[in-house]
Amino acid sequence: MPFTIYNLLAFKNQPDLKAEGLEPVSWYSRGGFDPVSVGKWASEQNSELLIVDFEALCSDVRVQAAECVAQGHAQRIESIKAAKRDKKVKSAQVGTYAVCPTSDYWTPVMPSEEKLLAWRGSNRFNSVLADELDVICPSLYAFYDDAKGYEKYALANIEEANTYGKPVIPFICPHYHHSNKETRNKMIPYFGRILDICRERCDSVILWGGWWFGPKDMGQPGESGHPWPWEADFAWLKEVRRVMKTLR
Description:
This protein has helices at about 35-40, 65-85, 105-110, 115-125, 125-130, 145-160, 190-200, 235-245, and strands at about 5-10, 25, 25-30, 50, 95, 170, 205-210, 210, 225. By secondary structure, it is an alpha/beta fold.
């Protein structure tokens, strides 16, 4: 499959990024977990990539009971099957967000044999879900202002994603993940390197982001978040354009 940059960005006043060469992707995350709802949603989508996001269900046997994770996978699998059966675009591929592998930053950045074995064991437990997917979509969001640390984390998570034997299409974001209050709502200065890692080692990539997170979004007193205003000269967009030139 040709390397594609998919667009799941949601900036305020965002232009049509198809003109930049980005392709649309359909994302299911707000509906019910039942396969009927997911199948109906899939039957209405026109894109070539469908992401069914049930990250709220149990997925990591390191911190959750194996029975709970197994039940979560059973729910995911039924909905994945419904999406594949009912999809409008018959050539569309179906994936899910982050579960295969379980996203982990600190285990590959500060590894120990015990932690690596536990992480890989959790990822092997999730193979039953990966077997039903057309594509594997790990989460490769950046948390820290540490490009070298990010590279260790990304390469290890991509390596784990590749063990499932499916095309790998990670989620990345031009701004830091909102869970880190020190970097929240800041753009990533090494985003070009993130793109290059994905270009070199993955089959495609999904761009997510565009939401400015307020304190209320994090369960704290204060204002709610809002879509981030679009800027025509975003530094990260220049990096996207640089990579797009290599694909033509």
